[in-house]
Write a structure and sequence with these properties.
Strands 1, 2, 3, 4, 5, 10, 11, 12, 13 and 14 form a 10-stranded mixed beta sheet that branches. Strands 6-7-16-15 form a 4-stranded antiparallel beta sheet, with no helix packed on it. A two-stranded antiparallel sheet has the order 8-9. About 25% of the residues lie in helices and about 35% in strands. The chain contains 8 helices and 16 strands. The protein has one domain.
Length: about 350
């Protein structure tokens, strides 16, 4: 009996660890959240891009003397016309690379770059936060007919894009390319961008890269909410106007997908005659696409899309819900066994 209790507790602990790992990964992840309303105005998206670059150098070196104890922060917000270069760059990337007419408009952009230096290491972090209205995703409207209802068709290909070129914006600090890590360095620590030029791709790799959200929709988890409570988070409808929503999410760890890992790259360069290690880390993808109505992911000729109906046309897919319920059941069982085990000692 005691062996079985230990075995059950171990299994439940593993399940809990996987779930908690998924929740932890969302604390710092490249984020994409979208609300798509096929029959209403008010669709919106929230995109957040992160990048961390770590420099490792010898104590007492020229770079150490420049950066040790130094903390610099570059921060600004853009909206209206000042945010247009960002909106136009993203819309162009989606159109050119994916051939989708999904567009952002009326966006606000918050940018933060920071460098913290120590005696033998400095960490440079970047965050670009974009909140925008969206449109162009509805390929076919829902229709009711005598021969049967026709669902709406929603474009979902747009979710995977990467802005390859420069995205130069005018700020109170001057013109800054927010898509290139090196650009902000020259403002925070004049001359540092030139010193790190040898790092090549790491310092030039685009920050606005959401390519990992292109994982097949079969890799996204699916949930639905018939109460419409999820829409209250967006403030779209007045009280009592809620509707069923379908939620596709990515980033949660599970036994099916495992744990999403950050993308990392390294380089070694020489700065002022001293070897410097440069390490870049882009966090894993996390987020969700919420669609008003009963949505189903479909694929035709390698093109993915959603069919969306305001009426339920079939039983929902509950794979992930069952995983969660089973995991929680296992965790509760482990707690019960633990309590009984302790009470008998």
């Amino acid at each position: 009996m005691r062996r079985k209790a230990v075995k059950h507790a171990a299994i439940s602990a593993i399940v809990a660890a996987v779930l908690l790992a998924g929740l932890a990964s969302q604390a710092h992840a490249n984020q994409m959240d979208a609300l798509l309303l096929p029959g209403n105005a008010g669709s919106k998206a929230h995109l957040t891009a992160y990048r961390d670059i770590t420099l490792v150098y010898p104590e007492g070196s020229e770079l150490a003397r420049l950066l040790d104890g130094r903390v610099e922060r570059l921060e600004f917000s853009l909206q209206g016309d000042s945010a247009n270069p960002v909106v136009e760059a993203i819309n162009r990337a989606i159109l050119d690379d994916i051939e989708s007419v999904f567009v952002l408009r009326n966006a606000t952009v918050d940018y933060v770059a920071e460098i913290k230096g120590g005696p033998d290491e400095a960490v440079i972090s970047y965050k670009i936060d974009i909140k925008s209205e969206v449109s162009g995703f509805l390929l076919q409207e829902e229709e009711e007919g005598e021969d049967g209802d026709r669902p709406a068709i929603v474009d979902i290909e747009w979710r995977s894009f990467s802005v390859k070129g420069p995205v130069v914006v005018e700020t109170e600090h001057g013109a800054i390319d927010i898509n290139r890590p090196a650009s902000a360095l020259g403002v925070m620590v004049p001359g540092l961008d030139a010193k790190l030029a040898g790092a090549g791709e790491i310092m030039e790799e685009p920050v606005l890269d959401f390519g990992r959200f292109g994982l097949p929709m079969t890799s996204w988890h699916f949930l639905f909410d018939v109460t419409g409570e999820q829409l209250k988070n967006y403030g779209v409808f007045l009280p009592g106007e809620g509707a069923t929503v379908s939620i596709f999410s990515i980033g949660e760890s599970s036994f099916r997908e495992g744990t999403y890992l950050p993308r990392e790259s390294e380089a070694e360069i020489t700065v002022d005659g001293t070897r410097v290690e440069v390490h870049s880390k882009t966090p894993p993808p996390s987020g969700g696409i919420t669609v008003a109505g009963y949505a189903r992911a479909e694929e035709t000729n390698d093109v993915e899309y959603l069919t969306v109906s305001s009426k339920q046309s079939g039983l929902p897919v509950l794979g992930f819900q069952l995983q969660v319920l089973m995991a929680l059941g296992g965790m509760m069982g482990a707690i019960a066994v633990f309590v009984l085990f302790k009470s008998r000692r």
